[in-house]
Amino acid sequence: MSLALIRDNRNYRWLVSASGISNLGDGVSALAFPWLASLITRDPLLISLTAVATRLPWLLLTLPAGVWTDRVDRRRLMVRADLFRAVLTLGIVAMVLAAPPPTDQPVVMIAGLCAVAFLLGAAEVLRDNAAQTVLPAVVDHRDLERANGQLWSIERIAGHFIGPPLAGVLIALALPVPFAFDAVTFAGAAALVWLMVIPARVAPARRPFLVELSEGLRWIWGHVMIWRLAILLGIINACAMASLTMLVLFSQEILGLGAVGHGLLLTSGAVGGVLGGLVAPRVARLLGPTVSLRLAMVIFAACYAAIGVASHPFVVALALFGEAFGGLLWNVVTVSYRQRTIPDDLLGRVNSVYRFFGWGMMPLGAVIGGAVVAWSEPSLGRDLALRMPYLGGATVLVGVGLIAVVSVRLPSTGRG
To answer: Span 4-407: which CATH code?
Structure first.
């Protein structure tokens, strides 16, 4: 990976550093949250509710977040969102210390966990929308693929390679420790973003909220390829959340892994993500963006099918590696395409509409994952029921991939 962009661009260097630190904390909480839920209850539906609460803001708040992002200083918005997340995560520490699991009131504790998870998700919506819209102001447009690839590689190293196994170690020390660590990383990320110096941006004059929102809706409706990508992303993310939500039970009950083993399993996905971030820009140039997206769809379906029939951690690790690689390839191509195509004064609103469809399906996917396991267990047994989100996801993605072959065509970036 060429480090020239990181070395020579001060603002990009602070942005990458902040994202790396923040994602390290996210990687720790990505294991700690479901692990805490699994200590409170073994009910798959209740466990899935924590994932639903985290992703529900992407459905409820994404559209207004786009308007807010285009109205305000995007750097300040990122700082405030990270500080808010730091305070909320300290609230989880207090909750665990006050009522350590197991508890005789699992529903009450899960409800409290869901409330905090929802607020964390709401802050994430604002922070991530602002971060994605600020990147074109930080790097030259011709460097967007390279910048996105490097950014996501570093995020994967921190959030998926280092974070999950570190979470296993921190959980072994004491259950509140990973959440306290997460709070520190959010505060550190806020400080680094505050150091960025971005030229003043002249925001359009404020008009009625619905008028500004409708401008983003009209723009994306007039660009068929972007809203097609948004719908495809929504289906992909729904399948991903259905499988990811149940992975903690799959890991414990089928693979027989503990907290450290589960963290190492998630790390395999990080390796695929890191490699994807480094290689995806080159793959996109070599194959072209359209063929690259088709390749990503094939990878998704094959990896979910592999997990659905696997009983050995090594097979699941390879599948998670492949799925993460495909995800980074998809992201590098589609996000760079949007950043290059959407006008800056509409970038927040159009991105929010895109993410409403693309990420708003995540809470639905999380519910589906838990519901499929709960409803199929009486007739299929626990083992096969835990496999159904993966087998079902593979089937859906095969159909979606066939649709994408005939409906998605992206222009070349013109760079060899």
So the answer is: 1.20.1250.20
